[in-house]
Design goal:
Largest sheet of chain A: 12 strands, mixed
Order of helices and strands of chain A: HHEHEHEHEEEHEHHHEHEHEEHHEHH
Radius of gyration of chain B: 27 Å
Largest sheet of chain B: 2 strands, antiparallel
Number of domains of chain B: 2
Distance between the termini of chain B: 72 Å
Helix content of chain B: over 70%
Shape of chain B: globular
CATH architecture of the largest domain in chain B: Orthogonal Bundle
Number of helices of chain A: 15
Oligomer: heterodimer
Number of domains of chain A: 2
Low-confidence stretches of chain A: 1-39
Chain lengths: ~375, ~600
């Protein structure tokens, strides 16, 4: 092909790319601040907290609106829809949007925003280890809560908050099995007696299931206590690909029991009329799986006022009640647990390592669990 | 005394030290070509190279941090790595082969026979292709799993077999994966098949070959470039398959490569293992390189021109009553690949809980239609898919044309560009792009904008578009272009009036398939764009993960409906436009001949 022949196709290739680059717009300027509405005393009628706390909430809301902060972007798995609806009703000028970014993808996105200076994310939200890890690595800024949050629910110099706890238990199809006859312990659940009657999400795909068995392996004391359970699961339990399938299989009557069912999902599906009940905790032997959920306000949040309002609101009376309604354990003293489940301090939970130690300690064990279920 | 030299007398200029190829217009051409190569290198080749380098670095971001060989050795020394690799190779190769055979056969039926319903094949396959893998998989899952599954009811009532014997394992996994990719095989093959000269078959028949042997000895060998390209592409993507093997393999303890990549990356939620995941990605890269080399070796040096001059006749022929068998095959494939999962998806969209018989509700549609974001989501997705698919198909066409008519370097470079993105496992592709583009000035500032999203999509789907287009380009005989040039047409005119019309079916197929690839991609919109610019696929997947599978199904069905309506309108417009263009061309030719003083039939 002659040289002259080459430049035409080359130009044809470059033209669309050049057009694309030319169309690249500058980042949109922040919207101009609007006039703030005059604040009133105790405007929420005690729904959020004391009059002083409510006044503080309203002042922060007004300040956020005045600063043009009308959107909060959260990187992490989205919560129950009802939680966001409640917040949006309370503070209609601010919209909270979740983007399903976790682990490596979230870090890559945050790193990209840092390097380009084009900041989008306000909050990182996830399980405790990834968020605590962000706090330790200096991604988060300290919070000064409106509510009086107990110190145990704050971490990494108050830059990380734990606003809720989630639990995992057994979903039982009541058309097929009386709840009273359900297995009482991990040992019983994974025994040959229940072979073919229990369905569970596979630990081979990682996630909470892999993490549960990693915690049974470590610390060492757990290893002895829960010996043989992992093997029993592999031998006797039907493993499926996704969390949602576990409850679907139980609700449709294919299996009487779903193990390691996530309670907030159970609440959603029970509400649709499925003949299922939740069994929590195991009456014998402990090993009840729980996770702390965490959030942090990112250092370079473009909407820090609106974002902190959302995070503070989660600890308000209304926020904690909304979390409870969605099937999560609220952490503020005096707020009842979800759906009649027992208080957590009466349950023999799976022992977990302290927050910072957990960042690195569980990794090798999770990997071993995945390998065990893959080989 | 010396007179003027002969050179001076002859008015002879001293030759320039710059060779002719590096001056004037040719220099501009070379510079443009160099710039195009640089841009393509950064966009297409840098991401897999960065991923490869990331295998040996441990840091906060892929490809950054301390150099280390530990994760590389650790990953490769795990027995599970090789188990999943072998499983994936078997699954990818078997399903690609199966889908390609069935797809090619149906494409042949559609364009070379007069089988009833043949005109419906292409639009039906196009619609099936829009079904997302998640819902395709869930649809089949409900057919073979559980007491209420139709297959299990049949086995129980007729043979007394209890349980879900076909609920998981290799047979169902292969059946489901093959069914999912049959439309891809069909749409890739139908364009080249439609542009193949029937005279070649006739020649074989006249020399004593039967119809069957003519098909196997003439038609199929001539389609080798497209078939091998598509096979390599499907195998590579099959290697990265995630949803379907997960749904049908887990219960039978069959684990695949993409799950391993994902879990290696995220096993420790707080500290992503980029090096381990990238090491696994190297295995896919190696596989792609080997497959491409084999393809080159098999096709090397042979000509595959099937669109020639006057004798070119692609008309279909009647094959008698056996054509009813062809129709039956089409209907079986239609149920297998489309109707069964689609019916489940439609049913699920009207159920309170997907796949569970708890009554009938329109609440899911009310939620989706009541959400003010839905219209924007669908519009944004369609625009992105249309533009991204078109640009990818255009780049694929230009690169394929350059490869055929260009030199060895251009050919090699284009091959590398069109295969490189395939070598990145699907679950890592978003990360690979973001880490590769971040250090590049210009591109870095585009990350987070729709432009970057579009560029990312073009990179990811260009290999798909190339496989659809290159077969069509390879089939065009150089003589046709030479004839046009000899008749006085410029290169541009030749390209637009000879090459483009002949390659149009392949181009349109490439555009459509690439567009579907854009609409269905999950990781790029999340990583390369902003939260306010998401696609239907991302939104639907989020809904599914939150437990609203029925709503996700409703949202996807609305997208499919919109694609159907918009596609139908576009098809009618293109068809009408082509008819007008043809009529205009014929009248111009007749007028030109008449003006020369004689009338001839054209």
């Amino acid at each position: 092909m002659s040289n002259r022949q080459r430049w035409l196709p080359a130009a044809a290739l470059l033209l669309p790319l050049a057009l694309l680059a030319g169309c690249a717009a500058e980042p949109a300027p922040a919207p101009a601040p609007e006039e703030s509405a005059p604040s009133t005393e105790s405007p929420y009628g005690g729904a959020l907290g004391t009059p002083e706390e409510e006044a503080a909430f309203q002042a922060l809301y007004d300040e956020a609106i005045a600063a043009g902060q009308k959107q909060v972007v959260v990187y992490g798995p989205p919560p129950a829809r009802a939680l966001l609806d409640t917040f949006h009703e309370r503070f209609p000028g601010i919209e909270v949007t979740y983007q399903q970014l976790q682990s490596a993808e979230r870090l890559a996105k945050l790193e990209q925003e840092k390097q380009t200076g084009n900041f989008v994310a306000d909050i990182a939200s996830d399980g405790r280890t990834p968020v605590v890890s962000l706090g330790v690595d200096g991604w988060c800024q300290p919070l000064d809560h409106i509510m009086d949050v107990p110190a145990e629910w704050l971490g990494v110099d108050d830059s990380v908050q734990f606003q809720q706890v989630a639990v995992f238990g057994m979903a039982v199809n009541t058309d097929l099995l009386d709840v009273a006859d359900a297995p009482k312990s991990w040992q019983e659940l994974t025994s040959a007696e229940w072979a073919g009657k229990v369905v569970m999400v596979t630990p081979a795909a990682g996630g909470a299931a892999a993490f549960t068995f990693a915690q049974m392996d470590y610390p060492e004391a757990n290893n002895e206590k829960y010996a043989g359970i992992k093997e029993g699961i592999k031998e006797n339990v039907t493993l499926v690909a996704k969390d949602a399938l576990v409850l679907q299989e139980v609700a449709s009557g294919n299996y009487p029991i779903g193990a390691l069912a996530y309670y907030p999902y159970f609440v959603e599906i029970k509400a649709q009329g499925a003949p299922i009940e939740f069994v929590f905790p195991f009456a014998e032997g402990g090993g009840n799986m729980w996770t702390k959920s965490a959030q942090c306000l990112l250092n370079d949040s473009p909407n820090p006022l609106a974002a902190s309002l959302y995070m503070y609101w989660e600890f308000s009376k209304e926020g904690q009640q909304a979390l409870s309604d969605a099937g999560l354990y609220p952490v503020m003293p005096g707020t009842p647990g979800p759906g009649g489940l027992p208080p957590l301090d009466t349950v023999e939970l799976l022992e977990q390592l302290p927050d910072i130690e957990a960042i690195t300690a569980y990794g090798p064990y999770v990997k071993d669990v995945i390998d065990f279920f893959t080989e | 005394m010396t007179g003027p030299s002969t050179r001076a007398l002859a008015n002879w200029d001293k030759p320039s030290r710059i060779p002719a190829g590096w001056r004037g217009e040719r220099l501009v051409g070379k510079l443009l070509l160099g710039l195009a190569i640089l841009v393509l290198f950064i966009l297409f080749l840098l991401p897999p190279l960065t991923m490869a380098a990331a295998s040996f670095r441990v840091g906060n971001l892929a490809g950054q941090g301390e150099w280390s060989i530990v994760p590389f050795i650790e990953t490769l020394s795990r027995p599970s790595t090789w188990v999943v690799t072998l499983n994936s190779i078997v699954l990818a190769a078997a399903s690609s082969l199966g889908a390609l055979i069935i797809g090619t056969f149906l494409a042949w039926v559609a364009v070379r026979t007069t089988t009833p319903l043949r005109r419906w094949m292409t639009p039906v396959m196009a619609v099936i292709l829009v079904i997302p893998s998640l819902f395709y998989g869930l649809g089949w899952y409900l057919v073979v799993n559980g007491k209420a599954a139709p297959v299990n009811i049949f086995l129980r009532e007729v043979f007394g077999i209890e349980g879900s014997p076909f609920g998981s394992g290799w047979p169902i996994m292969l059946i489901v994966v093959i069914g999912y990719v049959i439309p891809v095989g069909y749409l890739f093959m139908v364009g080249p098949m439609a542009r193949m000269d029937a005279a070649l078959d006739d020649a074989a028949r006249m020399n004593g070959a039967t119809r069957v042997s003519a098909f196997f000895t003439v038609t199929l060998p001539l389609l080798r470039p497209t078939m091998f390209g598509v096979f390599v592409l499907m195998t590579s993507y099959g290697f990265s398959a995630f949803e379907l093997p997960l749904l049908f393999g887990i219960q039978a303890d069959i684990h695949v490569f993409s799950t391993a990549v994902y879990t290696t990356l995220t096993a420790n939620e707080a500290i992503p293992n980029y090096a381990g995941a990238s090491t696994l990605a190297l295995i896919l890269m190696l596989l792609v390189v080997v497959l491409v080399l084999i393809r080159g070796w098999i096709l090397g040096g042979k000509r595959f021109s099937t669109i020639t001059g006057k004798g070119f006749r692609p008309e279909p022929k009647s094959y008698g009553r056996v054509q009813w068998v062809f129709t039956a095959v089409f209907i079986v494939v239609l149920c297998w690949a489309g109707v069964i999962p689609l019916v489940q998806m439609v049913l699920g969209s009207f159920q309170p809980l997907f796949g569970v018989s708890l009554g009938f509700t329109t609440l899911n549609y009310e939620h989706v239609l009541g959400d003010r974001k839905t219209a924007g989501l669908i519009t944004f997705t369609l625009i992105l898919a249309a533009i991204g698919g078109f640009l990818a198909a255009t780049i694929a066409l230009v690169m394929s044309h350059l490869s055929v008519r260009g030199g060895r370097f251009i050919r090699f470079f284009n091959q590398a560009v069109s295969w490189a993105p395939v070598a990145i496992p699907g679950v890592l592709v978003g990360l690979a792009l973001i880490t590769a583009y971040l250090p590049v000035p210009g591109l870095r500032n585009l990350i987070g904008t729709p432009i970057m999203l579009l560029l990312g999509f073009i990179v990811v789907v260009t290999p798909i578009a190339t496989r659809a287009v290159e077969g069509g380009v390879l089939q065009i005989s150089a003589e046709l272009e030479e004839s046009a040039r000899i008749s006085g047409a410029s290169r541009v005119t030749t390209f637009f009036t000879v090459v483009l019309p002949l390659v149009l079916p392949s181009f349109l197929a490439g555009w459509f398939i690439a567009g579907i690839g854009v609409a269905g991609n999950l990781s790029l919109p999340v990583l390369l764009s902003s939260p306010t610019m998401q696609t239907v696929a991302v939104q639907a997947y989020d809904l599914y993960r939150q437990g609203y599978a029925s709503e996700a199904a409703a949202l996807f069905l609305l997208l499919m409906l919109t694609v159907g309506v918009v596609g139908g309108i576009a098809w009618a417009v293109v068809k009408g436009g082509l008819r007008v263009l043809n009529r205009t061309r014929h009248s111009r030719i007749e007028r030109a001949i008449t003006m020369k003083g004689r009338v001839a039939h054209v």
